[in-house]
Design brief:
Blueprint: H1 3-11, E1 21-25, H2 27-32, H3 34-43, E2 48-50, E3 70-72, E4 78-80, E5 89-90, H4 115-124, E6 128-130, H5 137-145, H6 147-156, H7 159-180, E7 186-190, H8 203-223, E8 227-232, H9 240-246, E9 250-253, H10 260-267, E10 272-274, H11 282-285, H12 288-302, E11 308-314, H13 320-337
Parallel strand pairs: 1-11, 2-6, 7-8, 8-9, 9-10, 10-11
Antiparallel strand pairs: 3-4, 4-5
Helix pairs in contact: 5-6, 7-8, 8-9, 10-12, 12-13
């Protein structure tokens, strides 16, 4: 059975022959540990890959997302990078005053996909293919207004905020549809909603402004028979029922910011947990036994005839031997499923 089928059976709780895997390797790891990254990829190849984002028209950006001191993305948002190999943060708003909103235009170039090239990539692999772009309305608001100001905006709720959110959402609906018309297997959403022990905003704000957006993205995806994958950092337990209702197929979250047993009791068999293993403490500092125990904790609480993807992030501070141990342990668990 090829990777695509294994992932599909995982998402539908149809007892796949093994738990599929994916490692997220940041440029920092490729630069710092090139030999170890190569060994990891060769020994435990991914079952899930990103489609290349290929456009018929030039998408205007400047700098390098991970290495330039200053990177400007396709929306015109400026990221300042202080750590090589990791994307920077926005310090200056694209829209500083609401008067500037009249000049705001989403990037139409990102809608003009080269479908032939993207479809050729999808046909060339038996991997499960995610769309090569991120749909992120909350984070896009953060980038346009800065994190601090966007949280103030969501508290004060000026009418201009609603106009801006509508513009962002309208563009992302078009972008979801453009990708859904290709041969990718899933649309990819990403918004970091959590802090260490709570959400950045109240669940009520999420439900009022952003859940309806996600619902529409998922409806578009389902119309074209695509799955929906989502990443969200932090403690997001309060909105997981909403994400299930929306129709998120697989959720990548920081499980170890939450109670994994409670997550299993509440949500096992209702959504696929797309990793991960604790990258704040265990991957940088854990022993081999710590890593093995963490993997087994995830498996024992979240697996249910599927519904689990072996995933972790190889980013700053992570020890390569610990990342390797993650996948060695998952492979040992897979042997018990046969």
């Amino acid at each position: 059975m090829n990777s695509r089928k294994i992932v599909e059976k995982t998402l539908t709780f149809d007892s796949p022959e093994r738990i599929p895997r994916q490692v997220r390797i940041l440029p920092w790891a490729e630069e710092t540990w090139p030999d170890e990254v190569s060994k990891l990829r060769n020994t435990y190849p991914d079952d899930i890959v990103l489609a290349p984002a290929i456009y018929k028209k030039h998408v205007k950006t400047s700098g390098d997302r991970y290495y330039s001191e200053e990177y400007v993305d396709e929306w015109g948002c400026k990221f300042i990078n202080v750590h090589k190999g990791v994307i920077g943060i926005v310090q200056e708003p694209l829209i500083a005053r609401w008067e500037d909103l009249k000049n705001f235009r989403p990037p139409e170039s990102t809608l003009n996909l080269d479908k032939d090239e993207i479809n050729a990539f999808c046909r060339s692999t038996d991997k499960f293919v995610l769309a090569g772009t991120l749909i992120r309305p909350f984070e896009r608001l953060n980038f346009i207004r800065t994190m601090e100001q966007s949280l103030i905006d969501l508290s004060l709720k000026p009418p201009e905020l609603l106009y801006l959110l509508h513009s962002i959402h309208d563009h992302y609906c078009k972008e979801v549809e453009a990708w859904a018309r290709t041969e990718v297997d899933a649309i990819y959403l990403m918004d970091d909603w959590g802090m260490e022990k709570a959400m950045l905003v109240s669940p009520d704000i999420f439900r009022k402004y952003f859940k309806p957006m996600y619902m529409e993205y998922a409806e578009i995806a389902r119309f074209y028979r695509k799955y929906v994958f989502m990443h969200s950092d932090g403690c997001i337990k309060d909105i997981i029922p909403d994400l299930i209702e929306v129709g998120i197929s697989a959720l990548n979250s920081q499980l170890f910011c939450m109670d994994i047993k409670e997550l299993g009791d509440l949500f096992r068999g209702k959504i696929t947990f797309w990793g991960e293993i604790d990258r704040q403490n265990l991957l940088p500092n854990g022993t081999t036994e710590d890593i093995r125990q963490a993997v087994h904790e995830v498996y024992e609480n979240l697996y249910d005839r599927g519904g689990l993807i072996a995933q972790c992030e190889f980013g700053p501070g992570a020890k390569p031997e610990n990342v390797m141990t993650v996948f060695e342990t998952w492979e040992a668990i897979n042997q018990t499923l046969k």
